[in-house]
TrEMBL record:
<dbReference type="Pfam" id="PF00106">
    <property type="entry name" value="adh_short"/>
</dbReference>
<comment type="similarity">
    <text>Belongs to the short-chain dehydrogenases/reductases (SDR) family.</text>
</comment>
<dbReference type="InterPro" id="IPR002347">
    <property type="entry name" value="SDR_fam"/>
</dbReference>
<keyword id="KW-0560">Oxidoreductase</keyword>
<dbReference type="InterPro" id="IPR036291">
    <property type="entry name" value="NAD(P)-bd_dom_sf"/>
</dbReference>
<protein>
    <submittedName>
        <fullName>SDR family oxidoreductase</fullName>
    </submittedName>
</protein>
Length: 242
């Protein structure tokens, strides 16, 4: 599909990657951009149409779908990271991450699928992570939710193919946003990530590996778990030492 003249809805558009998606959509000629957030008053980007949206609240998702029946591109960007481990961390926090990072995206896809079909098929972008494929102490809940979101993305891609809806999974290492503020390593600029994702949509790509880190991690998936963990430990050490 063409980004030019499209009608897009972006979740979590008040800051970070979501704001960058909304801005680049406008700059690339989208006819309308719905910028959504739990607190709509925090959206400060001129030229967008602001909608309140909590992706963990099904009634809120349905209200957004009712208000935005002209959408042809859905960008599922909103997500959280609680820094929770699986064995010793709060199970409530793990569930909260799952409700946001996987079920929240699925709520959006289920409610907007008929709209996308009615508007010619369109596309869905799910912002995932290289952590779809690896975990780490202090981030294992996040890993589980992104792995689940990756599997969900692969499933809905098959289900929505019949109605002509493209589903694009976007993976990245770290972006220069508040969520990654504590990591003194190279980070992809939010606008570059948005462009890579939108270029992928226009190319009809099922998957976008937006940076070298995500490409490197995925290339190691054929390794045994022992080999994979050793390679990841080495890569992390080199990344932090750079």
């Amino acid at each position: 599909m063409d980004i030019n003249n499209s009608v897009a809805l972006v979740t979590g558009a008040n800051r970070g990657l979501g704001r960058a998606f909304a801005q680049r959509l406008l700059e690339r000629g989208a006819r309308k951009v719905y910028a959504t957030a739990r607190r709509p008053e925090t959206v400060d980007l001129p030229g967008v149409e602001v909608l309140p949206l909590d992706i963990t609240d099904l009634s809120s998702v349905r209200a957004a779908a009712e208000a935005a029946q002209d959408v042809s591109l859905l960008v599922n960007n909103a997500g959280i990271s609680t820094g929770t481990d699986l064995v010793t961390g709060s199970l409530e926090a793990v569930r909260h991450e799952l409700e946001t990072n996987m079920f929240g995206h699925l709520h959006m896809i289920r409610e907007f699928a008929p709209t996308l079909a009615g508007n010619g098929g369109g596309a869905v972008v799910n912002v995932l992570s290289a952590m779809s494929w690896f975990g780490g102490k202090g981030a294992n809940a996040y890993h589980v939710t992104k792995a689940a979101a990756w599997a969900m993305t692969n499933g809905v891609r098959l289900e929505l193919a019949e109605q002509g809806t493209l589903v694009t999974a976007v993976h990245l290492g770290l972006a220069d946003t508040d969520m990654a503020a504590g990591w003194p390593v190279h980070k992809i600029a939010p606008s570059d990530l948005a462009d890579a994702a939108l270029d992928g949509v226009e190319a009809g790509s099922a998957e976008v590996l937006a940076d070298q880190w995500s490409r490197d991690v995925k290339s190691r998936l054929p390794l045994t778990p022992e080999e994979f963990n050793a390679a990841m430990n080495q890569a992390m050490a080199a990344l932090l030492a750079a």
